Amino acid sequence: MTTSSVSPPLTTASSIGAGVAAGLPSRATRAIEPLPLRFLRLVPGLLLLAAVGFGGKVIEQSIAHYGKAHHLTLPNIEYVLWAILIGLVIANTVGLPKIFVAGVATYDFWLKVGIVLLGSRFLLGDVLRLGGISLGLVAIEITLALALMHGLGRAFGLKPKLTSLLAVGSAVCGVSAIIATQGAIDADEEESSTAIAAILALGALSLFTFPLIGHSLHLGDHAYGLWAGLAVDNTAEATAAGALYSDVAGKFAVLVKTTRNAMIGFVVLGYALYWSSRGQAQRVGNKVRFLWQKFPRFVLGFLLISLLASVAVFTKPQLTALGNLSRWAFLLTFAGVGLRTNIRELGKQGWRPLAIGALGEVAIAAITLALVFGADRLFHI
């Protein structure tokens, strides 16, 4: 990599959580920067996200038009995958120049915006019914995933706190859960970086493997979306894996993943209490405040928009507009998924955490698939 480029800021905990690495200004610098200057710093990266996402749409439509014009049956590869692939090529060839880093790092913000606006496409009754099913399956998935990852960590001789980070990341919500847990249990930077690298690498693989498995098993859109939301760790990758299958599958994947994300505070609190009882982490004072600090606020936004849609606050054209805005927000997210994934950096963290993560994820995917088949038979999702 040349000195004029930097890798996406997602291979260390500090660069993911605090956003200070790879060319991003420190919090102190941002605090004294005028607001217009801070916005201007984001513009190049935002334009790159839009260009990559739009490029994915153009490729998808061009292939479809070519096949139609020449009477060919070509595979319908969604724009989601094209946008991710374009981003991956950029990130792993020329690298991401410093001027784009701050704007590209906003992909996580657009993910949350997309999820909130997606609430307009769910009636609250559907959310409560499916959310209830999801909550039961999520509770089973979290329990099994935590137990499985700790068993694998002990078997492979990993450090206990690294095992805790891998367990939380695979059980709840990937990188976000690892970052939240790192501070709560006083894990060091290297352990957090290693866990994040393993989760990111496995999340990238899920984008290619889950749709193929779903199609080979002839899973319905609802069942596949439920499976992707349960088994894929990071919210961005879960959303993309669902959207790669179908629009309906993408909606269900987001709903289930949002239910899973809502559990983060309880899981992190449990680990904080465990490690503080061993004298290796700070004590948790106000537990209610701790849970509120860890709770993902965008879940409340999703529920609010769903409630407003259910009581007919929005007209039909407004619901259509909100749905389209949600798709555009996800388009920026999918572009960011590719641009932030540096394969070479992910490979530098060692083979053992990745091997443990891979074994655990395969087992979790199989277990959750069985849960989905069972739920489909019982509740006809």
Describe this structure in words.
The protein is an all-alpha fold. It has one domain. Helices cover 77% and strands 1% of the residues. The chain has 19 helices and 2 strands. Helix 3 (35-69) crosses helix 4 (79-92), helix 9 (174-185) runs parallel beside helix 14 (264-277) and helix 11 (221-231) runs antiparallel to helix 19 (351-379). The longest helix is centred in the N-terminal third of the chain and has 35 residues, at 35-69. It is globular and about 65 Å long. It starts with a strand and ends with a helix.
Strand order of the largest sheet: 1-2
**Oligomer type:** single chain
Mean pLDDT: 84
Note the total helix count: 19
The share of residues in helices is: over 70%
- Count of domain modules: 1
Which class do the helix and strand fractions yield?
mainly alpha
Radius of gyration: 20 Å
**In whole angstroms, how far apart are the ends?**
48 Å
Q: Quick one: how many beta strands?
A: 2
How does the major sheet shape up? 2 strands, antiparallel
Low-confidence segments, given as residue ranges, are 1-23
Question: Given the C-alpha coordinates, what overall shape results?
Answer: globular
Secondary-structure element pattern, one letter each: EHHHHEHHHHHHHHHHHHHHH
Share in β-strands: under 5%
